[in-house]
Amino acid sequence: MKQLTKGFAIATVAATALGLSAMSSVAVADDHDMSDKTESTMESAAQATSDTWITSKVLASFAADAHVSVFDLDADTKEGVVTLTGEVNTSAERALAKLIAKGIDGVKDVDADGVTVAEE
Known about the structure:
The protein is α+β, with helices and mostly antiparallel strands and about 120 residues long. The protein contains 2 helices and 3 strands.
């Protein structure tokens, strides 16, 4: 009986050790996944902040330029791409708005297809 109890105890300890080992592997994997998710969330937040900054800077630059009507234009930025919408008086004003937006740090591209020209 002692032999059976001793064997059972050894098997229990071995099973517990294997179980703990497996659990620690899962915990490490979960920590790794959580780290990836945290990093991804931080990158998304940084991109959103950068996009918001770019949009603000584009609109402020329009307001500072006497040849572009900031009241008739809007800008939105996603992943560094600025999308302009609204109406301008001339094709030259549309081109200038696009040029101003392209000159902002962090802007990768400018889409002005949503800007209509009143004279046309």
